[in-house]
Structure formats: C-alpha cells, structure tokens
Amino acid sequence: MAQKLTRWVPPGFPLRTELTLFTVGNVCAFLYSLTFLFRFWNSYRDLFVWARGVRWGLEPGAVMPDFVELLDRSLWGFGAAALCMLLLIPAHYAYHRTGSQSIYLMRRLPSRWELHRRCLTLPLLGAAICLAAALILLLVYFAVYQLVTPEACLTPGQWEKLWRVIP
Prior knowledge:
By secondary structure, this protein is mainly α. It is 68% helix and 5% strand. The chain contains 8 helices and 2 strands. The chain has a two-stranded antiparallel ribbon. The longest helix is centred in the C-terminal third of the chain and has 35 residues, at 114-148. The mean pLDDT is 87.
C-alpha cells in the first residue's frame, strides 16, 4: 500500500515514517479517548446502591452527570493528531527545497498542481481521517451513554448541551 502512496508525497520523502507516526498518533488518541469510558463507568456505578459487592438498586435521586461533563477532553487527542498532520504541509514543501531539491523540476512539470498535490494530499487526508475518527467515537460514546444509563437518571437535552459547548 505504501508503494501506491509514493506518488502523493515529495520524491524520496520517508513515507513509511510518516505512516507510522500517523498510526501511532491515532492509536494514542484512541487510547486517550477511553478515559471517557472510565469516567462513565465510575459515574454509572455511583447511580446504584451496592450491598456486599452486589448491585441492589438505584440510589434514590441519583442523576447521571451530563454527557459533556463525562466526555470532557477525551477526544482532544484526535485534534492534536490532526494538527500534527497539518504541520506536515510545510515539512513537505521544505523537503522539496532542501531534501530532494526537486522544487525546480516540480515547477517545470506540465501539471502546475503536481507540487501542491504532493505536498497537501496526505496531510489533509490524514487530518480528515483524524477528525472523522473523533466524530465516529463521539457518536459511539453518546450511544453508550444514552443506552446504558437508566432512563430515570438521565437529564433531558444531552445532545443539545453537547452542541452548546462545542464552539
């Protein structure tokens, strides 16, 4: 697969290193996003009365914290990974000038967009993948929150509260 992607990066650019860093960044972002599940589980356990390690029933007047509160900064790792991908754009342009020294060749090619295609495509695609992964996890975590939390413990308007927080 990396062989097919070589036409989307500057000539001679270390593509495998870029793909490895992209993968490691997204795996770390995913692992960090699991903090939502830990906070959710702890709040979920607090909703119940426990006797000798066995769940006995709902705590009287128990209310689950808002989804936004539990989500907190769990998905920020994907934003950081997307930002790192965008920082590769200047690195790709700089590599044309210093690394492969192909900047003049790229400017003489019949396709005037070749230089920009090689410098922008993978970083923008990587950033889009990071943000899409964050959106998918947001929807999955919201579904877990809504489906697992007992109806009596939910406060209304969780989805609206989420969009009021996001700028």
